[in-house]
Amino acid sequence: MTFRARHLLGIEHLAPEEIRTVLDLSEKYVALNQRTEKHSDALKGLTQINMFFENSTRTQASFELAGKRLGADVMNMSVALSSVKKGETLIDTALTLNAMHPDLLVVRHPASGAVDLLAQKVNCAVLNAGDGRHEHPTQALLDALTIRRAKGRIQRLTVAICGDIAHSRVARSNLILLGKMENRVRLIGPPTLMPAGIGEFGCEVYEDMKAGLEGADVVMMLRLQKERMDGGFIPSEREYYHRYGLDAEKLALAKEDAIVMHPGPMNRGVEIDGELADDINRSVIQDQVEMGVAVRMACMDLLARNLRAERGAKAVGVMV
Predict the structure, then answer these.
(1) Considering 30, 92, 131, 210, which has the largest number of Cβ atoms within 10 A of its Cβ?
(2) 251-275: per-residue pLDDT in tens?
(3) Environment class of 151 (CB within 10 Å of its CB; exposed 0-12, middle 13-18, buried 19+)
(4) How far is CA 87 from the centre of its chain?
């Protein structure tokens, strides 16, 4: 299995064969998670610390469950009650954590690049659970697994990513991954929610949602991230839904067997029609949640293998 990374900081640094390795191993963990006995000893004896500087429900719960099912000792660090709130710098926090000798550090942070900075200061494997507008690699990987299971492949598909592109690390990671796997990617949204220079990423950009959905295999909706907006990016939620919310009429323009995705949490009636979100024939939103645990198990397993190999090589070097 090809996976050379020491950390998982983004999709940008992964080769296509490494992405396939993650997806293939994830399939084994999907099967494990569907059994009555869901535990493995892949991380037995290792310590995992989850440190979320931003609130998260599903991502943090998913990483915690993944670590426990792999046999790790899992600690959730409450940043709201930590020394960070008392003025401790990110580097001081990293040095403090490093002194505790963790093996896996899962980090979500509101600043782009903060997780990469932490990775430079610790001796353990670091997983990026989302940093600012930069990347959210495990979300893109679980989306890829969901697509591959639904469509039978993760190449040569037309994928429409719709909504708040400008503030979305999910969109960025998916754009990079889908591009690496030779897919046709369309970004759909109002100009106010489209980052400058996005066309340079090798994607097609649409302001008209109906035109962008024409013939799509996959329709991936994004959450409207109002907490990251400091101005009038949209006229109103009602107007936004009228133009960019996914409903049955707009979806009819995509392929007949097109699947509907959303990273969650959803704003029903703003980004997507509630009935469509729950349509078991079109929506794979709940499958995404299930795939999330399996993908995070696979990522931590692979990083742990590399970590153990590195430590083993150093130990041999010391003995010699």
Answers:
(1) 131
(2) 999 999 999 999 999 999 999 999 9
(3) middle
(4) 29
